[in-house]
Amino acid sequence: MQYVYFAELEADPDGGFLVTFPDVPEAITHGEDRAEALASAREALSLALRGILQEGRCLPLPVTSIGEPVALDAEDAVKLAVIQSFKESGISKRELARRIGKTETEARRLLDPDHRSKLGPLQDALQALGKRIVVTVLEAA
């Protein structure tokens, strides 16, 4: 799972730039200049993807490769990976809790897209779901 989606930026007739994501139509934002628009794009993308999961839908695959690449913050990407992997696993929250040695309440928090979780428990959950985190660090654009 990679959480890099391509954004389309277009000049807004009222000023600034409008940002949309062909693969995530729910993610729309605006910025007074290009830099502000791209900074807002990351947050809009994260909010839209969390909303998609809260609605019980699967995350859209990033298939568009034209435009400006926008990567989620690492915390958001890992959290979404846990939630998506859990949905795909078909196990219960109780079973996830058992596999990671936590209470069901703690497992529910890990699966809540709006609850901040530390990397360690998220990594444990991914491992219990048969996934692992691989970190890639790139030059800033």
Average pLDDT, to the nearest integer? 93
As a whole number of angstroms, the C-alpha radius of gyration is: 17 Å
CATH topology of the largest domain: Double Stranded RNA Binding Domain
Reading off the top of the CATH hierarchy, the class of the largest domain is best stated as Alpha Beta
- Shape designation: elongated
State the distance separating the first and last CA atoms. 22 Å
CATH architecture of the largest domain: 2-Layer Sandwich
Tell me about the biggest sheet?
4 strands, antiparallel
Q: How many beta-strand runs?
A: 4
Question: Would you give an account of this structure?
Answer:
The mean pLDDT is 93. The chain contains five helices and four strands, in the order E-E-E-H-E-H-H-H-H. A four-stranded antiparallel beta sheet has the order 3-2-1-4, with helices on one face. Helix 3 (93-100) packs across helix 4. The protein is α+β, with helices and mostly antiparallel strands.
